[in-house]
Specification:
Layout (H helix, E strand, L loop, with lengths): L1 E3 L6 E2 L7 E2 L36 E3 L5 E6 L10 E6 L14 E5 L5 E3 L4 E10 L3 E8 L6 E9 L8 E8 L4 E10 L3 E12 L10 H9 L4 E4 L3 H4 L22 E3 L4 E3 L5 H11 L2 E6 L15 H4 L1 E3 L8 E3 L10 H8 L10 E4 L9 H15 L4 E4 L14 E8 L1 H6 L13 E9 L9 H16 L4 E4 L5 E3 L10 E3 L4 E3 L1 H8 L7 E6 L8 E9 L6 E9 L5 E8 L12 E4 L20 E4 L6 E6 L3
Helix pairs in contact: 8-9
The structure holds alpha-L-arabinofuranose.
Alpha-L-arabinofuranose binds next to loops.
Length: 621
């Protein structure tokens, strides 16, 4: 491998090169990164008609002691369902309540992680025909053991109208599979609504599970594409994600059933929280919105205006339509003031929007796209607009700044796609490889083989970073209790997590964003199984420039690699401390797991002899 390390040889890699794609799939958000412990907190998941299914809530006590039903008496207009508990037993009289009382419990998303010494904020709304005496507690999954509890009392006048109750519970013990109970031994009728339990140690108090947030921060993502994926489209338009329903006070959000990945979300992780997540990660938000097209139905271009959300903008006469980007409105505008009331008076730095997801071949895509394009471009000329249509091998038939490129394939094909952009036109819109992964039997639930093939592909993208400006793997997260898609980068349950080999591969590239690509040429007969790239970048921590060579050996045999550096000034180069980092394992099918989270991870060692000529053994695979 010959690397030209002279100052003049390099070409800049876009600042945005490596990022993440967050989709609400596999319970990535609800029951994942979003730390809310209660599932179906407003009892809305069963739909707006009563009686409704309150799953996963369950009733404590049999019909001799308690009647439970849903009705439409909620305080909140957009989510009318509330839970009515008619308690028939008491502490005295002829119907004594069973030990522990009666009421309801919520097991969360396959068990709540309650940890000794940690604090949890429980909030709920209550109303009653009389006084209340409720025990709010975290218990084991069978209702036994008191991990933390608080007694909530109120006179009849206190709770005759809907009343918000807040309490902080501190756990006395740990249980990763706990549940939240609300119980009573007092006869009467009680209504409950909007029950939330949030750990108090979320990242900056912003609601993100700290351990999972840390996994994202380690990737140093320069952008975050959200919230889907198919989640944005919906199987049917009526079930697509709607940002307006996902902002404002959490109690007032209706939640919705995502009919592609087939689960309910309370939309605690809404449009605002996604923007907050981007800001917390130091990543540029990329908002993917529905363009009037779902998997099964689509809005005709002549009727797509309600989706474009245009407003007549009288001041700027020359711009007849004002495309409303609520992330950027100033704090006095309608949506800007809502954003301010949620704790963010400054506009979010939204610079990218993607019009739809995987909709290029749909009948109305081009027409609908153009409506959005002209509205956005005229109101916000600086916003970069991303098309769903692949322009890597032929020009687009519509204007765009970037275009989506998605690739799910087997390992051999993925590796061979390292050259996918070699012949792409150097003019026109830039590529956003917004979803890629090896899938199928090569990948299992996250194999070394998949990761190696992806690494080869990424090296090809890095070498083509004059036309490939953004890259993100998909999907990002999977809760092991709801694997809708395999493989995924980060695997978790209520309290454990690990990165798949594909996650670790992405970390090899985390310095590439904004770095300089060096000319590197490989002289080898193994071009079908060996790829390499070289970058240089300034480390902000020590102010030094570093060179990183990345090599993928997708072959059963090891390779003796001879690297020569041209153009290095021997007076300014420090060779000691150079390192080699290797990701491999004894078998291509090896995966990480909760019991062996670091079976396949990069291992770093010092390079023994480094000079302008370096010999390195690159092991098989
Ligand atoms: O990443 C999983 C899915 O794959 C995404 O929702 C969709 O865009 C693609 O088909």
């Amino acid at each position: 491998l010959t690397v030209d390390a002279s100052d003049s040889s390099g070409s800049p890699i876009p600042d945005t090169l490596l990022g993440i794609f967050f989709e609400e799939i596999n319970h990535a958000g609800a029951g994942g990164l979003w730390a809310e412990l209660v599932s179906n907190r407003g009892f809305e998941a069963g739909g707006p008609n009563t009686p409704s299914n309150i799953d996963p809530w369950a009733i404590i006590g049999n019909v001799s002691y308690i009647n439970v039903e849903t009705d439409r008496t909620s305080l909140f207009d957009r989510n009318k369902i509330a839970l009515r508990l008619e308690v028939l037993c008491d502490t005295t009289g002829d119907n004594i309540c069973p030990t522990g009382g009666v009421g309801v419990y919520n097991p969360g998303f396959w068990g709540m992680n309650i940890e000794q010494g940690k604090k949890y904020k429980v909030v709920f709304y209550v109303r009653s025909t009389g006084s209340i005496n409720l025990l709010v507690s975290f218990t084991g999954s069978n209702g036994l053991g008191n991990l933390a509890s608080a007694e909530i009392t109120g006179s009849a006048s206190d709770v005759s109208n809907w009343t918000k109750v807040e309490t902080i519970l501190e756990a006395k013990a740990t249980d990763h599979n706990a549940r939240l109970q609300l119980t009573t031994t007092t006869k009467g009728v009680i209504w409950l609504d909007q029950v939330s339990a949030m750990p108090q140690d979320t990242y900056k108090g912003h609601g993100f599970r700290s351990d999972l947030f840390g996994m994202l921060a380690n990737m140093k993502p320069r952008f975050i594409r959200f919230p889907g994926g198919c989640f944005v489209e919906g199987e049917w338009l009526r079930n697509a994600f709607r940002w307006k329903e996902s902002v404002g006070p959490w109690e007032e959000r209706p939640g919705h059933f995502g009919d592609v990945w087939m689960y309910w979300t309370d939309d605690g992780l809404g449009y605002f929280e996604f923007l907050q997540l981007a800001e917390d990660l130091g990543a540029a938000p990329i908002w993917v919105f529905n363009n009037g097209i779902s998997h099964q139905d689509q809005v005709d271009t002549t009727a797509v205006l309600p989706f474009v959300q245009v407003y007549y903008f009288t001041v700027l006469f020359s711009f007849p339509y004002y495309f409303f980007l609520p992330a950027r409105g100033d704090a006095t505008s309608k949506w800007g003031s809502l954003r301010a009331s949620m704790g963010h008076p400054e506009p979010f730095d939204l610079k990218y929007v993607a019009v739809g997801n995987e909709d290029c071949n749909k009948k109305n895509y081009r027409g609908n796209y153009l409506k959005f394009y002209s509205a956005i471009r005229s109101a916000y000329p600086d916003i970069q607009i991303i098309s769903n249509c692949d322009a890597s091998s032929q020009p687009l038939n519509h204007p765009a700044d970037l275009y989506d490129y998605h690739l799910y394939t087997n390992a051999k094909d993925m590796f061979s796609r390292a050259t996918a952009f070699d012949r792409t036109s150097r003019s026109g819109p830039k590529a956003f490889v917004s979803e890629y992964a090896v899938t199928g039997s090569d990948a299992g639930t996250g194999s070394l083989k998949a990761a190696l093939a992806e690494a080869g592909f990424l090296i090809g993208l890095e070498r083509n970073s004059d036309v490939v400006h953004m890259i993100s793997y998909a999907p990002l997260f999977v809760n092991t209790n709801d694997r809708r898609w395999n493989p995924d980068a980060i695997v978790f349950n209520s309290y454990q997590f690990y990165g798949t080999p594909s996650y670790w591969v992405q970390l090899f590239f985390s310095e590439s964003s904004g770095a300089t690509l060096l000319k590197a040429s490989l002289q080898s007969t193994l071009s079908n199984s060996l790829v390499a790239s070289a970058i240089t970048w300034k480390n902000p921590v020590d102010g030094n420039n570093y060179i990183r060579i990345k090599v993928v050996n997708f072959n059963v045999n090891g390779v003796d690699l001879h690297i020569s550096f041209n153009g290095l000034d021997p007076n300014t180069v420090q060779l000691s401390g150079s390192t080699k980092t290797v990701l491999t394992s004894s078998s291509l099918t090896d995966e990480n797991s909760f019991s062996q989270p670091k079976k396949v991870v990069p291992i770093q060692s010092l390079l023994q002899s480094v000079g302008r000529e370096v010999n390195v053994v690159v092991p098989p695979y």
